[in-house]
Amino acid sequence: MLPIEFIERMHQQLGSEAELLFRALETEPVTSIRLNDKRDTLSFACDIDEVPWHIDGYYLSERPQFTLDPLFHAGAYYVQEASSMFLQQVIDQYLPAESIVLDMCAAPGGKSTLLSQHLGKEGLLVSNEVDRQRVFILSENIQKWGNGNTIVTHNRAETFGTKCRNLFDCVLVDAPCSGEGMFRKDMQAREEWSVKNVQLCAERQRAILMDLWDSLKPGGLLIYSTCTFNHEENEDNVLWITDCLGAEILPVDYEPDWGIVEGYPGYHFFPHRTKGEGLYICALRKNDESFVPFSPKVKGTVKTMPVEFEKEISSWLQNPDDWAIRQSDRFTTAYPARYKDLIDYLSTFLTCICTGFGVSEKRGKGAAPQHSLSMAKALRKDAFPNVAVNLEQALCFLRTEALPLTEHLNLGHHLLTYEDVPLGFVKNVGNRLNNTYPNEWRIRKL
Ligand code: SAM
């Protein structure tokens, strides 16, 4: 059942069209995925259709059991609600790849993986989540996506506002909201909905925006989005940004047959008009004024440890000069060399859950590859002997069970691949194969 007051409010907002929305909210949600460039083909046993506003977006006519697909765990695609992929249209228009971006409310990581893909080798993404549990899911998804251009952080908005003044070229606030646009997928969102909660969400959204506002450069891009329909959390907040924080609204191009409804300002996706869940999105440019650019005060403040086995570790990477390798305790991490001073500085006051990608761990007298390296697109695949596994073997590996491999393998680390996509490492220690898949990521139930 939809909440009565929600029905009344949507009647006021949409008139007689509200009935079409209510009917759409009682139908099955649509399944869609966004393909990673780790792979350029899809192999689902169902009909596939293109998402019109994202070149890598596809609708699936059925929802497969993604847990049973090794390619899902290898980051070959991300299961993302189709409307959210419209973010791509905004950034294609307004965000150069060479940008420093903050995704303030990032878990589980749909929009962050999309941003990370757009920034590629030129940009840097700070992907943040305040919730302690959700930040680890975010970190897992970012590592699996594998671009290495992202730091996953766990901080509050005010930390960015006070300590990263004028740093970001773009800030995305995909705000926690009353979730009306998820009423089809998420019954809990219906139960938790109330007019009071809509007001509380709107206030919280303004608090987040105000707290981080100083971290956005003047002239920088703010993208504000929610998955709710009401005006209080959407248009009213955007108008508050323009009036109280100082920004101008930017138009976003779209095709008339996509079914998008223009807000006053911004863009709405309604499930009775577009194939996807509810979304509101608006792009704004922060008013330009003179400012002191952010400068990392690195010299003398950040001490870095010498990297053990650096030559060997570098040989595991394609274009090793693109990556700064840092050692902390037994572990090494790689992150974009062009942003190394900035990242070193940010690491002094941000709670970093994952920085770039993990490369190695010191084991005995040598270095062993970390799982994160197998997910990274920077991995030089031929640095390790490759072992192609079938579905049964892949699922055993992902359950962290002993591997039923029959072929003879040399001693040492091997890269397992499934349909040519890296899945992780095993180590042949003579009498058995050690499975190095992270325990916390393992498949628990089938
Ligand atoms: N952008 C994500 C994606 O595309 O996968 C979805 C984000 S979800 C709509 C909103 C997120 O905001 C949640 O993960 C929630 O934990 C986080 N959040 C809740 N309260 C917050 C606050 N006060 N400041 C920042 N983020 C908050």
Secondary-structure blueprint:
Layout: H1 4-14, H2 18-25, E1 31-35, E2 48-50, E3 57-60, H3 70-73, E4 77-79, H4 87-94, E5 100-103, H5 110-119, E6 124-128, H6 134-145, E7 150-153, H7 157-163, E8 168-174, H8 187-192, H9 195-212, E9 216-226, H10 235-246, E10 247-250, E11 261-262, E12 267-269, E13 279-286, H11 310-314, E14 323-328, E15 331-336, H12 340-346, E16 352-355, E17 357-363, E18 366-369, H13 371-375, E19 386-388, H14 391-398, E20 412-418, E21 421-428, E22 433-435
Parallel strand pairs: 5-6, 5-8, 6-7, 8-9, 19-20
Antiparallel strand pairs: 1-3, 1-4, 2-3, 7-16, 9-13, 10-13, 11-12, 12-13, 14-15, 15-17, 17-18, 20-21, 21-22
Helix pairs in contact: 4-5, 7-9, 9-10
Residues 84, 104-111, 129-131, 134, 157, 174, 176, 204, 208, 227 line the site of S-adenosylmethionine.
Descriptive account of the structure:
The chain is an alpha+beta fold. The protein has 3 domains: 4-286, Vaccinia Virus protein VP39 (Rossmann fold, 3-Layer(aba) Sandwich); 297-383, Nuclear Transport Factor 2, Chain: A; 385-446, Nuclear Transport Factor 2, Chain: A (Roll), CATH 3.10.450.720. It is 27% helix and 25% strand. β17 (357-363) and β18 (366-369) form a beta hairpin. α7 (157-163) runs parallel beside α9 and α9 packs parallel to α10 (235-246). The chain starts with a helix and ends in an 11-residue tail after the last strand. 44% of the residues are buried. The structure holds S-adenosylmethionine. S-adenosylmethionine binds at residues 84, 104-111, 129-131, 134, 157, 174, 176, 204, 208, 227.
